[in-house]
Amino acid sequence: MDQIVFFWVGENLSIPNYFVNSIILTSEKKFKIIQVTDFKTEEIKGVDKCLRTELPRDIMTARLKAYSLVETFNSKTIFCDADTLMINTFDFSKFKKGYHIMKRIKNDMINHNHPEHYPEFKNKYFMDLMPFLFGAIIINQEKNFFKNVYNICLKLPSRFHRWYGDQISLHIYYLDNKSKFNFFKQNEYMHIVSKNDDPDAEFNFLIKNKIPFITFKGSISKKRIGEYFNLMCN
C-alpha cells in the first residue's frame, strides 16, 4: 500500500491532526499513514502505524533518525512535513522507481546570523548549499536513504543538528549519488502558503489546478492551517 509518512514530537497535536484528517478527507483511505515519533508523543488519531524510537534531542537529527525507520523498499512512500494539508489526492503512478526530490523555486540569500551564527552561509544563496526542499521527498520502491543522511548530519557541527542540517545533509548525499535522484516540480505538487495569501482565492486556484499539497512554514502554520482546513470541509 502507498505510504505517507510524517514526523511529530511534542504535546500539541493540532498541526499533525489537521494533516492526518486532510489525508483521510481527500483520499478515502487510499494511503497508509505512518507517524514517526518518540516514546512520549501521543499517537495521532487516524494513523495506520506509529513507529517509535529513542530520538536525539535536536530536531534535525531527530527527524532524520525517525525517517530512517520506515521500510520503503517494497512500497511507494512520500515523506511530508507535518504542517501540511492534502487538498487533492496524490498520484504515485507519475513517479518511476527511485528517489524524487523538489528543487527550490526561490533563491534568496541566506541570513547567516539566523537563528544563530552560521559562518558557512555568509554571502551564500540557498541554491548554493540547500537547493532542495525537505517538505516532500519520495522514495519509490527503493532502499531508505535517510540513515545515510542522518549519519552525514551527525558529523556536522552541532548547530546543524538544531537547524538546517536536514537540507545540508541531503545536498551532500545528493552530490555523491546524483544518478539515483529524479526531480519533481514544486509548483505542480506543493504550494507554500505565505502570510499574504488570500485563503479563498488561493484555495480555489489550487483545487482547480489539482495541486496535491499545501504547506505552512513557521508561525504561519499555527495561524493559517486551521483556516485552510476549514475551507476543505465546506
Q: Would you mind describing this structure in some detail?
A:
The protein is an alpha/beta fold and 234 residues long. The chain has one domain: Spore Coat Polysaccharide Biosynthesis Protein SpsA, Chain A (Alpha-Beta Complex), CATH 3.90.550.10. The protein contains nine helices and ten strands. It has helices at 14-27, 59-67, 126-129, 146-154, 159-162, 165-176, 186-189, 199-208, 219-233; strands at 3-7, 32-37, 49-52, 76-80, 84-86, 98-103, 132-140, 181-184, 190-193, 213-216. The longest helix is centred in the C-terminal third of the chain and has 15 residues, at 219-233. It is globular.
Task: Please describe the structure with a list of short key phrases separated by commas or semicolons.
single chain; 234 residues; alpha/beta; Spore Coat Polysaccharide Biosynthesis Protein SpsA, Chain A; seven-stranded mixed sheet; 10 strands; 35% helix; globular
In short:
This protein is an alpha/beta fold.
Which CATH top level class fits?
Alpha Beta
Secondary-structure class: alpha/beta
Order of strands side by side in the largest beta sheet? Answer: 3-2-1-4-7-6-8
CATH architecture: Alpha-Beta Complex
- Whole-Å distance between the termini? 29 Å
Series of secondary-structure elements, N-terminal to C-terminal = EHEEHEEEHEHHHEHEHEH
Shape: globular
